[in-house]
Every structure is written in C-alpha cells, then in structure tokens.
Amino acid sequence: MKESIGNAAILGIVIVFVGVFIGLFATSSSYTKAFKVKNKIVEILEKYDDILGVKVVVNNSLNETIENEINDVLSESGYRISRTGNNCPVRNNQNAVVKNQTQNYEYCIYEYSTTKGTYYGVTAYIYYELPVIGTELKFPVYGETKINGILK
Questions:
Q1: Which of these, 26, 60, 114, 137, could form a disulfide with 128 (CB 3.0-4.6 Å)?
Q2: Dist. CA 49–CA 25, nearest whole Å
Q3: 6 — phi, psi (to 5°)?
C-alpha cells in the first residue's frame, strides 16, 4: 500500500509540472505575437511618417491608408479581434488617436509633439483566456517610433 500512495503523489507532481510548462508555452506564444504586432505597427508609422512624409494623424484620427495597412498586417499575423471594443487608456497625459468605430483590432496609437519633433507611441495587447475560470486577462505592450525631426 505504501508504494501506491507514493506513485499517486509522483503522478500528481508530474501533472502539475506538465500544466506549468503548457502555461509557459502558451504565454510565450501570446507574448511573442503581441510584440511582433507592436513592432509592425511601429514600422508602418515610421514608413509613412519619416520616409513617405505622409501625415499619420489627420483631424485627431488615423490616416485611412495607414489604418487599412495596419489592419491588413494584423489580419495576416493572426492578431486577435477585439470582443470588447477599443478602450485606450490615457498615457503620459495624452489621449489615444481616435480611430473609426468599425475597428476590429485593439491597439492604441498616441501622438506626442516635442521640441525635437513628433513621435508616436503604440500599445498592443497580450491576451490570456482562462477557460476553467471563464476569465480573460489583457496586458499592454508599449513601444515608440523614433522622433521625426519635422514638426507638423
């Protein structure tokens, strides 16, 4: 009888470790996807703002061409479609650039003007769904473009 209790305890420990490793792999996958999405959005903003000289923000709204390109990149990458809508928090005393209400993806773009020029902040989100509990967790990933030396 002594060995059967020992085997059950070892089996429980193995199951816990397998669960932890599966959680770590799922977490790293979501983490990587969110950082790739954030970096792609930063690249698009820098391409239009620095290289092509297109104004990214028009009337407190994202340029439609840029928004369409960002949506295409997000759909190709498999970024999660938002179920709750796009609720961007205030960051560094700055509101997010207002996007169209038909937006399917949740990301936030902030425009900052400094004495050196304009730059943009981008927030993408990491999503974790806990099916047993029925809860969804969302964590922000933030990055910035380089400063464009031309004041707009």
A1: 137
A2: 36
A3: -65, -40
What is the full DSSP assignment across 13-30? HHHHHHHHHHHHHHHHHH
Dihedral over Cα of 135, 87, 70, 99: its sign: positive
Q: Could you give phi then psi for residue 116, rounded to 5 degrees?
A: -85, -25
8 Å CB contact between 122 and 112: no
Amino acid symbol at 110:
Y
Which residues is 113 bridged to in the sheet? 118
Torsion of CA 56, 61, 62, 65, to 10 degrees: -100
User: Which pLDDT belongs to residue 100?
Assistant: 47
Average the pLDDT over each of 22-26, 77-81, 114-118, 121-125 and give the range with the smallest value: 77-81
**Which DSSP helix (H) or strand (E) runs through 34?**
helix 2-46
Between CA 57 and CA 148 the distance in angstroms is: 14
CB 44 within 8 A of CB 56: no
The string of pLDDT tens digits covering residues 72-120 is 888 888 777 766 666 777 787 777 776 544 457 788 888 888 888 888 8
Residue 16 pLDDT > 90, yes or no? yes
